Amino acid sequence: MVQKYQSPVRVYKHPFELIMAAYERRFPTCPLIPMFVDSDTVNEFKSEDGAIHVIERRCKLDIDAPRLLKKIAGVDYVYFVQKNSLNSRERTLHIEAHNETFSNRVIINEHCCYTVHPENEDWTCFEQSASLDIKSFFGFESTVEKIAMKQYTSNIKKGKEIIEYYLRQLEEEGITFVPRWTPPSIAPSSETSSSCKKQAASLAVVVPDTAQAEGLASEALGTPTGPPEPVAGTPDDKLDADYIKRYLGDLTPLQESCLIRLRQWLQETHKGKIPKDEHILRFLRARDFNIDKAREIMCQSLTWRKQHQVDYILDTWSPPQVLQDYYAGGWHHHDKDGRPLYVLRLGQMDTKGLVRALGEEALLRYVLSINEEGLRRCEENTKVFGRPISSWTCLVDLEGLNMRHLWRPGVKALLRIIEVVEANYPETLGRLLILRAPRVFPVLWTLVSPFIDDNTRRKFLIYAGNDYQGPGGLLDYIDKEIIPDFLSGECMCEVPEGGLVPKSLYRTAEELENEDLRLWTETIYQSASVFKGAPHEILIQIVDASSVITWDFDVCKGDIVFNIYHSKRSPQPPKKDSLGAHSITSPGGNNVQLIDRVWQLGRDYSMVESPLICKEGESVQGSHVTRWPGFYILQWRFHSMPACAATNLPRVDDVLASLQVSSHKCKVMYYTEVIGSEDFRYGSMTSLESSHSGFSQLSAATTSSSQSQASSMISR
């Protein structure tokens, strides 16, 4: 398996020429890098005007590896070839390196780049990327991979320190300024020097280099918004090392690389709203920085958020009055680490009454709004305290907990809430303080704990009786001034006291079921399952020619082929798949087949658009201008290629799934609408501006990438 590394952008607050003077002092050897024994110049080229300087070195490295492994390999040193291409005119240095030793067994490639900061010509940016591919190594492939990764990450950490060491050395020698390159034919007068400075500054932003055209260093760095103190170049499309430390925390080089690569994958493939960096990092932490696993659960969560419009829940949904009066929970200041503090008086809450009065879905939606508010408060506290805060603390008071809290429907609702929160808000709980746990608590814990992730469980602190008042108790985590009054503290807590929900507010099972279904289906999207040999099809009847059929769908699972057909006659009533193995449990999920097996393409119906292959995780928007009235059939058909071909990040899970029957099932979430031609400006989905169209409102509310696939063709 190929191991890859991508660094964030590291910013030196020194001019490019001074950084180059410090960099050259690393050769022919560097005492700060013990493994770097020596280097010899193999080739060197200088242009006549001195602007281009290319030097190729053969570097000798003493790898810290077991003596036995070196003896088996038959080498004491490893040799690398490094090619440095300095362009003083454009103020760039590109470094390419590859291994010479064991090149037929191990392939190591590295690319580094020094460029001028796009927004400050007196600062220098640095990036590096690398790949390691071990083909074979005498049966020690895993050992060699670990040694290589360990050596590389240790050198990454030292990289900036080494440059800063030589900068201090230059300063001690009285060298604090190195003049920029100027063409030899121009006298270095003050006027020309000023003009050259402006010219160099303009050239520093546009770097016509092949490597930069590939995206290694041509992205512009943005400026941070919000925080009171400046950060050295927080970017829009790339992550800056100072930004990571300030807003995301101290990450190892490999963790930084995982974040950057997953973020880049989302930008390239996800055609919807991209999560914030701190949220991407949460999914990575939840899966121990396994990119494949983190990507899988994050894509599922993004689809879930879009389907239920969770991004807008704080603005569009208000909790019922019953929840405001009887749900004994609320936000209360912050803990000693700056995390937002949520207080839940579970023992005082009538869970049975809330479930009977509101239903399971309303409770779930309220908990989702609490989590969304928690994410917002984490961002605010990050700015207030000047350090990364990505999780909150929850204080649960169990005083009053008894057997009525173990009412089966209530426990079922609790387990459902835990399942949804665990799947979509990973690593948001920093600490859970459970106070005054009664004797009945072990029973509840036995029921609940299997549904809680191991990482989350380790954050639980449980206190029985008044143990929270002693050493290692509440005062270790919360300042005395904000301990709630009901816990013998000095701070008045505005969290509702809960109490029994009046039975007059209870609703019948039928009313609750209808309410739950309404909450589930408030989204304008529908879900459908697609099986091998059983496509999902929907029928659209067109009365007026030149109408516009629009669609927006997400491929939630598997790969599908999207087709549009036209028929002059209506298909038979829909045939729903009745196979037990294909039964759909999610609301709105179905599989409908309209095209009769005896129909022949070209005689009974015709294809009006070219088939579109859509990969797992893609979001597709498009439109079709109808030429004839009649019946149009939109079809999502199973595509036989394995899901792992959808990205350049192959997943073992996908390969294993391809061997199972369940791999022959795909899932899509779609919305369609027919718009009159007078309300539709011809073009892609971004041109929908009809005030009568629900789809146009969707387009305005959804942040869609301009790279979304679109089909807008007149049928032939």
TrEMBL record:
PROSITE patterns membership: CRAL_TRIO (PS50191), GOLD (PS50866), PRELI_MSF1 (PS50904)
Subcellular location per the Swiss-Prot or TrEMBL entry: Cytoplasm; Golgi apparatus
Lineage: Eukaryota, Metazoa, Chordata, Craniata, Vertebrata
Job of this protein: May play a role in innate immunity by inhibiting the antiviral RIG-I signaling pathway. In this pathway, functions as a negative regulator of RIGI, the cytoplasmic sensor of viral nucleic acids. Prevents the interaction of RIGI with MAVS/IPS1, an important step in signal propagation. May also regulate the SLC18A3 and SLC5A7 cholinergic transporters.
UniProt cross-references to SUPFAM superfamilies, sorted A to Z: CRAL/TRIO domain, CRAL/TRIO N-terminal domain, Supernatant protein factor (SPF), C-terminal domain
Protein name: SEC14-like protein 1
Gene3D superfamilies xref list: CRAL-TRIO lipid binding domain, GOLD domain
Residue intervals passing through the bilayer: none
GO CC term, one of those recorded: Golgi apparatus
Native species: Canis lupus dingo (dingo)
Alphabetical list of Pfam families matching this protein: CRAL_TRIO, CRAL_TRIO_N, PRELI
Domain PRELI/MSF1: 3-175
Chain ranges of the CRAL-TRIO domain: 319-495
BP-aspect Gene Ontology terms: choline transport; cytoplasmic pattern recognition receptor signaling pathway; innate immune response; negative regulation of RIG-I signaling pathway
Source taxon at top rank: Eukaryota
Annotated signal peptide: none
Assembly behavior: Interacts with RIGI (via tandem CARD domain); the interaction is direct. Interacts (via GOLD domain) with SLC18A3; the interaction is direct. Interacts with SLC5A7 (via GOLD domain); the interaction is direct.
Sequence ranges assigned to domain GOLD in this UniProt record: 521-674
CDD domains assigned to the protein according to its UniProt record, in alphabetical order: SEC14
GO MF annotation list: protein sequestering activity; RIG-I binding
UniProt keyword terms in alphabetical order: Cytoplasm, Golgi apparatus, Immunity, Innate immunity, Phosphoprotein, Signal transduction inhibitor
